[in-house]
Design goal:
Blueprint: E1 7-11, E2 17-22, E3 32-34, H1 37-42, H2 45-50, E4 56-62, E5 65-70, H3 76-91
Antiparallel strand pairs: 1-2, 2-5, 3-4, 4-5
Length: 92
């Protein structure tokens, strides 16, 4: 594993999804999809680590990337900050 974590984010033009690009291996390449908090809680270790983040209503994990949809009442900057912190806590 790398000694540092790179995280880049991109919000879709219509503000509906966030894509998080990392230099991490988040899973073995198969797509994981979670449509609720309960699914996140029962998911892979990375999904469980992200389940604590309020506002995530959908999460897709594939290789080193995350795709996130949010509750419209939760600002993206809070979700980005929380995802960054959760990944750092999980991997470091």
């Amino acid at each position: 594993m790398s000694e540092y974590i790179e995280i880049e984010t991109e919000i879709s033009d219509d503000d509906s999804t966030l894509t998080v690009y990392t230099n991490l291996r988040l899973n073995e390449g198969e797509v994981e999809q979670y449509h609720s908090y309960d699914e996140l809680e029962e998911g892979s270790p990375v999904a469980q680590a992200l389940a604590v983040i309020e506002g995530i209503v959908y999460l897709q994990i594939q290789a080193g990337d995350l795709t996130v949809r949010r509750d419209p009442d939760t600002p993206w900057h809070i979700i980005v900050s929380d995802i960054s912190a959760a990944l750092k806590d999980f991997f470091l």
